[in-house]
Inverse folding.
């Protein structure tokens, strides 16, 4: 059974009333989420729901040539595959751990059973699905309309939010995949942000040195998504 402290570490689970938690807790299992672990592959049947307790999971579309484009991110504020209704489903995107952490998982069958019994679970997950859809749409618009400088600043802020640390463990190769650009473009852009004193690059990590300055450097998508989240989950 999942420990209460672990349940409270995920914002969605923390929003549930005790009777709702009792429907899920006996079947939730805690596990480490190492960087690079694939939680869900494209075009495979969804069999598990994941509730991150720390770290960050990227939702990426895999193009025919094998390249990746990130469409959304999930941290301790949300869940991967928390779908309600009838199933089964096949995943449209790959869910891959980009910042290592821990999480809780439950089979889709058990999750669906609990959702059928609890209107509150259905309500919370429906609101989160609304936010996730907003994020995917906002990210698509951001990729099409905004410069790499502002997009990279936004991504680093999203990573910092979910890592809850100014040190973000990642490589430029990873950033190029997530942002859908060449590695050389990421190299020159991170160099610009570093020259402005906003970040510091080290081997395998980026350190945010000026959080307020990075927020000003980011596109408005970051603030828009934070506002949407507050509107959907006003508590």
């Amino acid at each position: 059974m999942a420990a209460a402290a672990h349940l409270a570490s995920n914002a969605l689970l923390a929003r549930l009333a005790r009777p709702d938690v009792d429907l899920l807790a006996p079947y939730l299992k805690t596990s480490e989420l190492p960087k690079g672990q694939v939680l869900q592959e494209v075009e495979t049947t969804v069999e598990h729901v994941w509730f991150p307790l720390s770290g960050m999971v990227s939702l990426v579309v895999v193009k025919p040539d094998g390249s990746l484009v990130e469409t959304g991110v999930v941290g301790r504020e949300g869940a991967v595959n928390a779908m309600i209704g009838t199933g089964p489903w096949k995943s449209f995107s790959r869910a891959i751990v980009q910042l290592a952490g821990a999480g809780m998982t439950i089979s889709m069958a058990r999750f669906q059973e609990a959702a059928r019994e609890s209107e509150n679970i259905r309500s919370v997950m429906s609101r989160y699905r609304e936010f996730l859809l907003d994020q995917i749409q906002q990210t698509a618009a951001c990729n099409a309309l905004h410069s790499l400088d502002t997009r990279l600043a936004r991504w680093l802020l999203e990573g910092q939010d979910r890592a809850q640390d100014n040190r973000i463990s990642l490589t430029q190769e990873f950033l190029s995949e997530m942002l859908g650009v060449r590695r050389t473009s990421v190299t020159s852009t991170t160099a610009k942000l570093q020259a402005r004193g906003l970040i510091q690059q080290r081997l395998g990590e980026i350190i945010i040195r000026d959080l307020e300055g990075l927020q000003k450097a980011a596109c408005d998508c970051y603030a828009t998504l934070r506002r949407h989240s507050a509107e959907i989950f006003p508590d």
Notes: The mean pLDDT is 89.
